[in-house]
């Protein structure tokens, strides 16, 4: 999460649509893990990246729909 937010602020062109899609899909999958602490941490990171807006993480698939599902 910290590296992604740092890259977004300094070189967002490094975050390709495929990379961001894979990252968000992996976080969503980890959010369904059986182990509570992994599930909670992945969910927290997912929501933080989704709601970051200074600047926003580019290329998050279905951003508007996800923002409706996961409000701040």
Automatic annotation (TrEMBL):
The lineage of its organism: Eukaryota, Metazoa, Chordata, Craniata, Vertebrata. GO terms for biological process: adherens junction assembly; bicellular tight junction assembly; microtubule cytoskeleton organization; post-chaperonin tubulin folding pathway; tubulin complex assembly. Residues 23-71 form the Tubulin-folding cofactor D C-terminal domain. One of its GO terms (molecular function) is beta-tubulin binding. GO terms for cellular component: lateral plasma membrane. It comes from the Eukaryota. This is Tubulin-folding cofactor D C-terminal domain-containing protein. It comes from Hucho hucho.
């Amino acid at each position: 999460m910290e590296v992604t937010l740092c890259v977004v602020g300094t070189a967002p062109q490094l975050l390709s649509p495929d990379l961001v899609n894979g990252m968000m899909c992996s976080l969503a999958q980890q959010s369904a893990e059986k182990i509570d602490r992994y599930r909670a941490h992945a969910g927290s990171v997912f929501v933080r990246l989704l709601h970051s807006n200074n600047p926003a993480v580019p290329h998050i698939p279905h951003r508007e729909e996800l923002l409706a599902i996961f409000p701040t």
